[in-house]
Amino acid sequence: MKRPLLDRLLAARAARTPVAMVTDMGTGQQTLVFPDAVHGAFAPDAERLAAVRTMLAEDRSGLIGDEDEDVRLFVNVFAPPLRLIVVGAVHIAQSLVPMAGLAGFAVTVVDPRSAFATPERFPGVALVHDWPDDALAALAPDSRTAVVTLTHDPKLDDPALKTALPSAAFYVGALGSRRTHTLRCERLRTDGVNDEALARLHAPVGLRIGAVTGAEIAVSILAEVIATRRGTAPARP
Amino acid sequence: MVESGPGMDPDVLSTAADWHAAGRKVALATVVATWGSSPRPAGSQLAVDDTGAMVGSVSGGCIEGTVVHEARAVMEDGEPRLLTFGVSNERAWEVGLACGGTVQVYVEAVE
Predict the structure, then answer these.
(1) Which of B106, B49, B47 is nearest to B81 (CA)?
(2) Which residues of chain B lie closer than 8 angstroms to A77, CB-CB?
(3) Smallest Cα–Cα separation from A218: which of A160, A148, A151?
(4) Per-residue pLDDT for B38 more than 80?
(5) pLDDT at A69
(6) For residue B110, which of B57, B59, B45 has the smallest C-alpha distance?
(7) Thinking of the domain A83-230, which architecture would CATH place it in?
(8) What pLDDT score was predicted for residue A121?
(9) Residue B54 φ/ψ region, left for φ over 0, alpha for ψ in the -120 to 50 degree band, beta for the rest
(10) How far is A115 from A113, CA to CA, in rounded Å?
(11) A101–B30 C-beta distance less than 8 A
(12) What is the average pLDDT value for chain A, to the nearest integer?
């Protein structure tokens, strides 16, 4: 790998730009493919370039072409990290946030109660003290974002959910019992959230693993987020 | 690929760049294909320098020794290599994958 190409790759990652390093397995030549540009030692033909960009969009690395083909490309996709937005700088969040960091998520904690969302409780984590609907609107959840509400307080959870549910977020979950969830759905429906959006809501949040402690609940939440991302989440009863 | 952060493994590519900037020889190993069960998906990377330091992984640990050996050869001659490991490999007795899968690893120099 040529050093200038490596530096360019690192710069793209720092800027959270999706990029693929494409290696011609025959010649060893390499080129970077961006969503809207190509930079490097060679330019793949139109058909292969389209295949590379599909892999870039799907966050999938691998080979293009079989062993007997004259051109065989290895495509290594570097997608920006998945994001997790946690609403509620509560006890469970103190377990969930570092766990999600280990799993590769870029985590943001939203809580207008500045006594909760402190750097002491969440060292090295992006903290937002805006009201959750404003915060969520500014953070603009995309298809690589998961949103989890943990405050147990409708004043904070509901505005976050009203903003998150219609977004492209691949996962939206809310802490709270079944009864809490029923009441929440009634409120959100009254506020104009439609049934289709409500059906997207994972609540009570997390896989059913019998979690009891804050850390165990964090494991169940993170497991459900990952399972949803991988398309293997079990159907909810 | 994720960025390095609190509690996370050091990032492979930025570490490779740092080593190279410090004047060390560096090779990069990348999983390009897997068949059957294998612990690390395509795109997984391991960086090695000429002091034997390494960061990242291309397997659960079963082939790293051989990959590091090949990486040192790549540092010397600059020629990339494509290595295949698995039960069908004639060297399976030596560095076979315990999981029964097959993995192809591309090893190149950072230059």
Answers:
(1) B106
(2) 1, 43
(3) A148
(4) no
(5) 79
(6) B45
(7) 3-Layer(aba) Sandwich (3.40)
(8) 96
(9) beta
(10) 5
(11) no
(12) 94
A-B CB pairs within 8 A amount to 71
For chain A, the domains span 3-78, 83-230
Q: Is A10–B110 a contact, with Cβ atoms under 8 angstroms apart?
A: no
Residues of A in contact with B106 (CB under 8 A): 23, 25, 74
Asked if B32 and A25 come within 8 Å (Cβ–Cβ), the reply is: yes
Give the neighbor-by-neighbor strand order of the sheet with A126-128. Answer: A126-128, A106-110, A83-87, A145-149, A171-174, A201-202
Region A198-205 average pLDDT? 95
Q: Which residues of B touch A79 (CB under 8 A)?
A: 1
Return the top range by mean pLDDT from A186-190, B94-98, B102-106. Answer: A186-190
Quote the tokens at residue A11: 């710069």
Q: What are phi and psi of A202, to 5 degrees?
A: -85, 105
Compute the distance between CA of residue B95 and CA of residue B65 in angstroms, rounded to an integer: 9
Q: Do A101 and B6 count as a contact with CB atoms less than 8 A apart?
A: yes
pLDDT tops 60 at residue B4: no
Question: Which helix H or strand E contains B55, and what residues bound it?
Answer: strand B54-56
Tokens of B41: 């998906």
